[in-house]
Structure prediction request, 253 residues.
Amino acid sequence: MKAFLPGQLALSELIRNPGLWGSIRAQFEQFRRRYRTAYRKHHCDYYAALDRLHARLENAPRRLEALRLLNDIPELGTSVGTDLPARYEGLLARVKTCPVTQVTEVDIAARPTCATCGLLLTARAPSAEIETFVNDLERVLQEQRRRLSAEAVRRVLERAGGDELSRLMEAARAAEIARLIDVLDERVADSLRRLLIEDGLVTAPPDVFARLAELHPTEIPAAVHGFEQLLRQALEEARKAHPDKKTIRLSLR
Prediction:
């Protein structure tokens, strides 16, 4: 049929054989029915997939807020996942649904796409992008959980008395503080911040590696010596910047 249609549509052929108009119209109507069926199915499947993806993002605002609050606690180190809020907004715009939910109401009479949403037949739901985003968000929250647990355990081990078993049991209980991430709000974050400040801890993010690269060391001993000097300098700068802290920790990540 496809091979003969261009020839049938030629003006000279139509003039010579006017009866072709009927068969051409029949072929077109058949194509339009098949296209309408395929497009409406695609429209239904696409937005069903978007509904599932939207559900995957349902908890993202709360978890992004928890990440923001944790990143605002300097004692936990350098911020992580700072690109995630913008990525979330971009993905949210891509999972907007069409108000037309009934398959038979999808209108493509005047155009080849839905008159309401304009969905292309080739459009694909952003499944991979959303899964990557969710995994990245969980990964950075897990990193903040690890940092929070590590600092709580360190504090307990430094201050706890009693025998070794008692200290370990207290440390194990302190590690559970990371569960607070699941219920984190401004009030809880403020409590965590005060706890770490009272503990006298600060994590300073020096640009040691950037400084080392500027020295261009060509020999290993020189590189080691330069690295040591830069670490000492960074530690001294951090102590001057945070004179009220008992513990200064340099983060090289």
Observations:
- The chain has two domains: 5-199, 200-253.
- Residues 20-56 form the longest helix (37 residues).
- Strands lie at 201-204, 247-250.
